[in-house]
Amino acid sequence: MAAIPTTPLYMRRIGFDPDPGLAVLREEDGVRRVDSLLGGPAWLVTRIADVRQVLGDPVRFGNSRHHLVPGAPAMTEEELAAMLPGNLLGFDPPEHTRLRRLLMPEFTVRRMRRIEPRIHEIVNDHLDAIEREGPPAELVADFALPIPALVICELLGVPFEDRDDFQSRYTRFFDVSLSMAERYAVQAEAKAYLAELVARARVEPGDDLLGMLVRDESAGLDDRELVGIADLLLLAGHETTANMLGLGVLALLRHPDQLRLLRDEADRVDAAVEELLRWLTVVHTGVPRVTTAEVELGGHTLGPGELVVCSLPAANRDPRLVRDPDGLDITRDAGGHVAFGHGVHHCLGAPLARMEMRIAFPALLRRFPTLRAVEREPEYRAQQVVYGLASLPVTW
Ligand code: HEM
Q: Which InterPro entries does the UniProt entry name for this protein (predicted)?
């Protein structure tokens, strides 16, 4: 089948819904030959079952060979060596398993409960500040972004006062309108900054994740791995949750019946968070894997070394997952969604992200029962790997 130019379909249109073209592809043929964002060919996977097959099979759909697929920017051994260490997403088992096992204990639901009171405190401090300032407020800058950023900074041991610098770096890193070379250069800057923090932690390990990893000699992590881990956690730890918080608030404001249910009935919050994760699916540009052997997928035979891109928004709006998938319904069980991915790379920070959202959404809605958006159409982050809002002016 000829490749069709579907690059724009990786991207979200303005608003909450994925590009309608994705639904058409999903119904016609869940696995389609397309042009990837890198310029070479790829298989776009849009059905929930096929996405689970790909992400659930790290042996046939690997993560460590992205630099070898057609269209990928040529990287020198040095560039690869600088980029990979510590980055869980760049490895397959067993290398991946080693890193994941080291970090897992710090991200269990039980461990998250220990920091729950601190998250409440951080959320309340930000709500107090918004209330003190009075309306209007800028919900992304004053609430959605700083809360997860502060939480991950404290958890990791990164000075919060550096956040303007690292946030602007990560926004550039996630900007798909920039070239890969420009994005790698930004990543090198981020790593240089984190290398200083790791050096400091080696001398004086704090009571945080970096300090813990430095102290644990049996972990055997070298400095480049520590920098890579810190980079991934800092990036993944705040960009994603921040965008879920901002976009989630707007989604609720646009669905006042759902908002009322969540505000007035506290025990609905777990289901509401899962449904918002499913419906919004902020990791929207496609999760890539590379085939390691010939493999059958959705009725197609894929050769080895082919790029496969899973569209999480398409899979999460698959009618085979939930009934009426395009509707937002916080009373349903959306638990089978793939907004956090699936399989061995399933989001390490999911328990933390869930806890932040379960605390932040209801606290905001109860503090400001008359909250409303100031503008009809706020600014969306359409060019970003993680979808969301650039700003959300609100009043009450
Ligand atoms: C992996 C989404 C929050 C750390 C992933 C993946 C997705 C995802 C889709 C899988 C990518 C793949 O398979 O290629 C999200 C969403 C979040 C969120 C939607 C918020 C709502 C967080 C937080 C942290 C975090 C708060 C850290 C504290 C990670 C890490 C991985 C990952 C380290 C790689 C895991 C591995 O390779 O084993 N996330 N994430 N994420 N996420 Fe998250």
A: Cyt_P450, Cyt_P450_B, Cyt_P450_CS, Cyt_P450_sf
pLDDT digits over 278-322, tens only? 999 999 888 999 999 999 999 999 999 999 999 999 999 999 999
CA of 350 to the centre of ligand 1 (A): 7
User: How far lies 173's CA from each of 176, 261, 294, 339, 389, in Å?
Assistant: 8, 37, 33, 21, 17
Residues 43-79 pLDDT 10s = 999 999 999 999 999 999 999 877 777 667 667 777 7
Please state the domain count of the chain. Answer: 1
Global pTM value:
0.94
Q: Give the CA-trace dihedral at 315, 316, 317, 318, to 10 degrees.
A: 50
CATH of the domain at 109: 1.10.630.10
Ligand 1 contact, 115 CB (< 6 A): no
In a domain, 1, yes or no: no
DSSP, collapsed to helix, strand or coil, labels residue 372 as strand
- Specify the DSSP element, H or E, that contains 287: strand 287-291
Q: What is the ipTM of this complex?
A: 0.99
For residue 123, the CA-to-ligand 1 centroid distance in Å is 22
CA terminus-to-terminus distance, the chain: 54
Residue nearest to atom 20 of ligand 1 (CA): 241
Q: Specify if 3 maps to a domain.
A: no
- Band of residue 3 on the pLDDT scale cut at 50, 70, 90: very low
Mutate to test the pocket of ligand 1, among 346, 347, 355, 361 (most ligand atoms within 8 A of CB): 347
Q: Is the CB of 228 under 6 A from ligand 1?
A: no
Residue 172, token pair as written in the block: 């550039």
User: Domain range holding 277?
Assistant: 9-395
Q: For residue 2, is it within any domain?
A: no
Find the 396 Cα to ligand 1 centroid distance in Å: 33
Ligand 1 contact, 62 CB (< 6 A) = no
3 or 254, which is more confident:
254
